[in-house]
Design goal:
heterotrimer; A alpha/beta (249); B mainly alpha (332); C mainly alpha (306); A: 249 residues; four-stranded antiparallel sheet; 9 helices; 36% helix; C: 306 residues; mainly alpha; two-stranded antiparallel ribbon; 11 helices; 2% strand
Chain lengths: 249, 332, 306
């Protein structure tokens, strides 16, 4: 089996008395979509924050392509190929959708310490950015300021930005949140095609999408993984049923 | 790739203002009224200082309440270099002997470099913080330099330092008010060009993105700290250059150039004109100096009314003059 | 160097620290509860000093003046809060900085308009004008000791207020979550006005007390304000304990630095150069200390929301 792209071992994080992450181990293998599900308050977002580097974990390891990235900041991890989208859209509101994506293209290409050439006439930035926008269906909204985009469009923009980074792994935090059925369907199809480019660690509540997309599912409850396996294994797993439905298996 | 009417109108107004600033002293010169030429020079120099701050504040969102530190450093560079050149005493003798200079280009270069160098440690510490902390810390650093200048008698201490003869610029008689104005105006135009270039560049994109959403910038893999530190240094250099010109204009430098009041004035210039706008500092400086001289002529209490107007601007006219003229910024 | 002299300087440092604490406590409360950076706090210090001087001159009583300073500063604070500051809570820091900077101009020039440009004089009250014997010889002004006493009283009073009263509870709640307590029905607007007026009263008290030691003049508040900023940055914005520790630290470091550094440098460089060098470094010392502390703890020593 190929080596795991992302490997989390015994990750822990407490906030005061609350054990948000209580010894979580999981990995992300090449070419797969690994879904992370769990009831509200399970600590899924906190886990993503720790993997991405926006929150410092207390103990445990995070290995990305075999390298320990635990001491690196968020920007450095992103540079190494860890692309993420945010649960609550985090965009540059005054910039257009295009400029938001161009920023990611710029970051991918290397140094931002270029002072001379205007970005708005730089095809090496604009073309890849437009390509990413086209793939996520936002091409005709390219010039609209991010603050003026609809909620669904902002989620799409988040994905476009992550795409433009050309990452080696995706961390997607509830990309379907707040999207209607139409939007969810097309996003599901899109994510399906995305797995060939880079594996995806997908946090989601939308069970239809999860069951349609996931190669493996891990279930997080009160900061611990209580079950991990294929779609069928999880569907019939007694503890999972108990956690979600509160009934005996 | 021009975008919408607002931008063109803004640029047009900006050009008109720049033209007015040039025409005004030319007319005054023809009418033999040197006072007004000096006034225009004051506008140009303060505008230059504000362009520097605008880079950090307007583009980067860094609310520096200590930019007077760089303004004053530039001023003291001019004063100290000129004093030593005049007295023929070296500033330092090792590793080589340096006698100061009374040539503007040399002084400008030194002002740019030394201000930028000073900005590095100040920025390195201040930029580890954010929000209110950043504001207070930049203020505190400027105060530190202010008090040092006050208590260092070699260069005048509280009384300041005079520049006995205006520094020289090749090919010009800088004692001539109009010549000095043209030098300052030229530098202002260069600075505006630098600002526009930086704003449109990749660096500028990263800087502005960091202002709008710091997390977003880091999430794409650009470290906000480095971008901001470099912006802070460039900003300091430009404001420092303005300080050197200011000292030459007044033929005097004193700790008041380092004071918190000066830092406040610089922020006022940027905001009056429109934070982040290319020609904002120009508009702000022209308005401010006009106001200062017109109202100052009427009453000694003019700062009271300035306070009221500022309050009004903050509460009701948030985009400053350029904001009123050109509407919301379109970033494209 | 004699012990009495050292003790005298230590006490001076403490007194300076106490006065800074009065300023810093108000500032940090206002920022902690309302999220507002208030540059006009120095103006409220000045208002307190002027009110005290004016009333003391008119009535002959320092104590009436002191009462007037508290009342005037609190009233000025409440007025400013109602008319201007209220509109700033939702604004970004830049707007708050500029608006409160504008208030400094208005207060300063307004005061100059009313009272003229010459300083007012405020005399130390007769009952406090003596000096007492210190252990080890030497005498120390009673007035300055009284100021230290006031500081201890205020610190204790604030502690009791914040931890034992309902107002204090609302203040603490407001510091952690502004929106929440509004949702819970606490009258935010009155709370904010009260907190602002309280901070203003403390600043006015500081101004009046110091006014008797130095002179009362326009612009006296700003240098103190900036030092108070240093104090709360060192102590941690939003923390009263931090303000106390920071203030005492700043007061002692500054006073002892100005006393000791010239002597220290003189030992190496000779009296003329040493005094100059020492004085110059001493004037920067507190900022250097601030920078060092921030290099290791960017949010200060006792950051409220770590």
């Amino acid at each position: 089996m190929a080596e795991a792209v992302l490997s989390i071992r015994d990750l822990r994080k407490t906030f005061g008395a609350l054990k948000a992450t209580d010894g979580v181990s999981l990995d992300l293998r090449p070419g797969e979509i690994h879904a992370l599900i769990g009831p509200n308050g399970a600590g899924k977002s906190t886990l993503i924050h720790q993997i991405a580097g926006s929150i410092r974990h207390d103990s445990g390891n995070i290995h990305f392509f075999g390298h320990d990235v635990g001491t690196l900041g968020m920007a450095e991890r992103a540079r190494r190929g860890l692309g993420r989208s945010f649960q609550i859209s985090s965009l540059a509101p005054e910039f257009s959708a295009l400029r938001n994506v161009m920023l990611a293209v710029q970051a991918r290409q290397g140094s931002s310490f270029r002072f001379l050439k205007p970005v708005m006439s730089d095809r090496s930035l604009i073309e890849p950015a437009m390509a990413a926008l086209e793939r996520t269906g936002l091409a005709d909204r390219a010039r609209v300021p991010a603050a003026e985009l609809s909620h669904g469009e902002r989620r799409q923009l988040e994905i476009a930005i992550a795409l433009a980074l050309g990452p080696k792994a995706f961390l997607l935090d509830e990309p379907m949140a707040g999207m209607g059925p139409e939007g969810s369907r097309s996003l599901t199809a899109f994510l399906d095609s995305l797995r060939q480019e880079a594996p995806i660690l997908l946090v989601e509540h939308d069970m239809d999408a999860v069951f349609a997309l996931a190669d493996r599912i891990s279930v997080l409850v009160y900061g611990r993984i209580i079950a991990s396996g294929t779609v069928d294994e999880i569907r019939s797993h007694p503890e999972v049923r108990r956690a979600y439905l509160g009934e005996a298996a | 790739m021009r975008d919408g009417v607002g931008m063109t109108r803004e640029t047009l107004v900006g050009f008109v203002l720049a033209a007015l600033l040039l025409a005004f002293p030319l007319v005054a010169s023809a009418m033999d009224e040197p006072f007004y030429i000096t006034l225009a020079t004051r506008m140009a120099v303060l505008a230059l200082a504000a362009v520097g701050l605008n880079l950090a504040l307007g583009l980067g969102g860094l609310i520096s309440f200590g930019h007077a530190a760089f303004f004053g450093i530039g001023g003291y560079v001019a004063g100290i270099f000129a004093a030593h050149a005049f007295n023929q005493e070296p500033i330092f003798s090792a590793p080589f002997e340096f006698m100061g200079s009374d040539r503007m280009p040399m002084i400008w270069l030194a002002a740019l470099l030394i201000s930028a160098l000073a900005a590095l440690p100040i920025g390195a510490i201040s930029l580890r913080t954010s929000g209110v902390y950043f504001i207070m810390i930049t203020l505190a650093f400027a105060q530190m330099i202010y008090y040092f200048a006050m208590s260092w008698p070699a260069y005048g201490g509280e009384d300041g330092l005079s520049i006995l003869a205006r520094n020289a610029f090749p090919g010009l008689n800088t004692a001539n008010p109009l010549s000095l104005f043209l030098v300052c105006y030229g530098l202002l135009l260069v600075a505006l060009l630098v600002f526009a270039t930086v704003r449109n560049s990749r660096f500028g994109a990263a800087l502005q993105a960091g202002r709008q959403n710091e997390t977003r910038l880091a999430a794409v893999g650009i470290a906000p700290f480095s971008v901001r530190l470099v912006a802070f240094a460039i900003s300091a250099a430009i404001t420092g250059l303005a300080g050197a010109l200011y000292a030459d204009l007044n033929r005097f430098v004193s700790p008041s150039m380092l004071s918190w009041q000066m830092s406040g004035e610089l922020i006022v210039l940027v905001i009056l004109g429109g934070t982040g706008r290319l020609f904002g500092p120009l508009a702000g400086a022209m308005l401010f100096v006009l106001f200062e001289s017109a109202l100052g002529g009427l009453t000694e209490r003019w700062q009271f009314f300035l306070g009221l107007i500022l309050l009004g601007v903050v509460l009701f006219a948030r985009g400053g003059l350029m904001g009123i003229v050109a509407g919301k910024v379109r970033h494209g | 160097m004699s012990t009495p002299l050292l003790i005298e300087q230590l006490l001076n440092g403490l007194q300076f620290g106490v006065m800074l604490f009065l300023m810093a406590a108000g500032l940090t409360l206002i920022f902690g509860v309302m999220g507002l950076i208030n540059l006009a706090h120095g103006s409220l210090y000045m208002v307190g000093a002027f009110a005290c001087a004016a009333v003391a001159a008119a009535t002959g009583s320092f104590w009436l003046g002191l009462a007037a300073s508290l009342a005037a500063a609190a009233a000025a604070g409440a007025l400013v809060e109602l008319v201007v500051v209220r509109r700033l809570y939702d604004r970004d820091h830049l707007d708050q900085v500029l608006a409160t900077f504008a208030l400094i101009l208005i207060f300063s020039e307004g005061t100059r308009w009313l009272f003229g440009s010459f300083p007012l004089y405020l005399d130390i009250p007769a009952t406090l004008s003596g000096a007492i014997q210190l252990p080890g010889g030497g005498r120390y002004p009673l007035y300055r000791l009284a100021i230290i006493g006031v500081g201890i009283l205020v610190a204790t009073g604030l502690y009791l207020l914040i931890s034992k009263t309902r107002l204090g509870m609302r203040i603490r709640a407001g510091e952690s979550d502004r929106e929440m307590i509004a949702a819970l029905g606490v009258d935010i607007r009155t709370l904010y006005t009260v907190v602002f007026a309280l901070g203003a009263a403390l600043a006015g008290l500081a101004g009046a007390l110091v006014g008797a030691l130095q002179s009362v003049q326009v612009g006296m508040g700003e240098p103190v304000l900036i030092l108070a900023f240093v104090v709360i940055v060192i102590g941690g914005i939003g923390s009263i304990k931090g303000a106390l520790v920071g203030a005492i630290l700043v007061g002692l470091v500054d006073t002892l630095g100005r006393f000791l550094l010239p002597k220290l440098f003189s030992a190496f460089m000779g009296p003329a150069q040493g005094t100059t060098m020492g004085a110059a470094i001493a004037s920067m010392l507190i900022y250097v200390v601030m920078a060092l502390i921030l290099a290791f703890r960017p949010r200060g020593l006792f950051a409220a929301n770590a």
